[in-house]
Amino acid sequence: MEIYLIGGAVRDLLLGRPVTDRDYLVDHADQDLFQGRYPTARLVGKSFPVFILDGSEYAWPRGGSLEKDLELRDLTINAIALDENGVIHAHPKALNDLQAGVLRPCSLWSINDDPVRAFRAARFAAQFPDFSPSPELLEQMRAAALKGRLKSHAPERVGRELQKALAAPKPSRFFEILRLAGCLSPWFDEMLACCDVPAGPPEYHDKDVFGHICQVMDQLAGDALMVWMAVAHDLGKALTPQEGWPSHHGHEKLGKVPARTLGRRLRLPRVFIEAGEMAAVEHMLAGNYDELRPGTKVDLLMRLEAKRLTSRIFKLAAADGHPGLYTKAKRDLRTVLKVRLPDDKRDMGEASGEMLRQMRCDALAGTDKPSQSHQ
Q: What distances in angstroms separate CA 69 from CA 58, 117, 200, 209, 278, one per listed residue?
């Protein structure tokens, strides 16, 4: 029996990157022999046998041999194995591509075998910003899209690739590569709709909405949830009347539905879907925080704090061209949260709520006197 460390773990070792997940390949042994030697291993695969041992996966070579398994993998940089003696076994182009920074499919049929690999390749482009897609990779991705091969897949698989891309060093490359290869539809139709739509007046924006979203994504890299909020924040601009472009009045409210639709289509966690909706609806209010009346500030802060998104919304606003507002919002939030209703004004239903809101408005306005101007 031979056991090989396989795939991304070997790639990362050779690149000098931290290794987090370790997968293994078992050769020259059947399942009974393997489980006899490792009795604590747990079988989890059904159609394709996979064992879990000490948190790592152990599988058998696809195609019956190590060489065939490497050929059947997605990208050459992932088609590398390390045996127990420290010897490297690799796809013929793997080591050169690793050194040259090239994302290349392992074979002529790599993407066709599993079209979700198109999204996986785009995710690797986000994780490895210095690596470039090879012409044959883009060609295979484009061909899969044209044949309609990207449609019939479990949403969770596409969503997983997106979530990994959102956590990558340059998350925008995920969408940029998909756009370049014609692979945004059908899973990312909302982003496709943003292509060639002016982001705003030329004095403020020199990109289309797609490009602007990508720019904001990269400014927020390092926080996957914030990067998703960047994706969602301007989707509504594609829905504003074309005769009004490059202005997009009302795009905030229009953006809530596409943000929700995109998140649900990809089966993203609820926290992502809600944060995306909030980003779409609230980012302009946050960006104009200085101009808001006390009542509007109170309502905004309470909505954001209820979802624990206050800091993230204002960081999004900063990346969107409105810096320096979070310090003021944080100060105001402290002021608002210190306000307490007198004991005799509590437990009065909506009336108590209205009184508390008014007291908070007065606190922000720096006065104890109620004022209609705070509404």
A: 14, 16, 50, 42, 45
Q: Residue 22's CB: how many other CB atoms inside 10 A?
A: 17
**Tens digits of residue pLDDT in 68-109:** 999 999 999 999 999 999 999 999 999 999 999 999 999 999
| Residue spans in the chain of domains classed CATH 3.30.460.10 | 1-100
| CB 42 within 8 Å of CB 53 | yes
Find out whether 234 and 198 touch, Cβ atoms under 8 Å: no
Amino acid letter for position 248: H
**Confidence band (pLDDT; 50, 70, 90) for 204?**
confident
Strand 23-27 to strand 56-59: parallel, antiparallel, or no bridges (unpaired)?
A: parallel
Q: Three-state SS for 89?
A: strand
b/e map 79-104, b = 16+ CB within 10 Å: bbbbeeeeeebbbebbeebbeeebbb
Sign of CA dihedral 353, 359, 365, 370: positive
| CA angle, residues 130, 120, 125, in degrees to nearest 5 | 10
Name the packing angle between helices 350-365 and 294-306 (round to 10°). 120
Query: For residue 158, what are the β-bridge partners?
Result: none
Topology (CATH level 3) of domain 1-100: Beta Polymerase; domain 2 (3.30.460)
Contact indicator for 166, 175 with CB cutoff of 8 Å: no
Report the pLDDT value the prediction gives residue 372, as an integer from 0 to 100: 44
Give the three-class secondary structure for 262.
helix
CA–CA separation, 172 and 263 (whole Å): 17
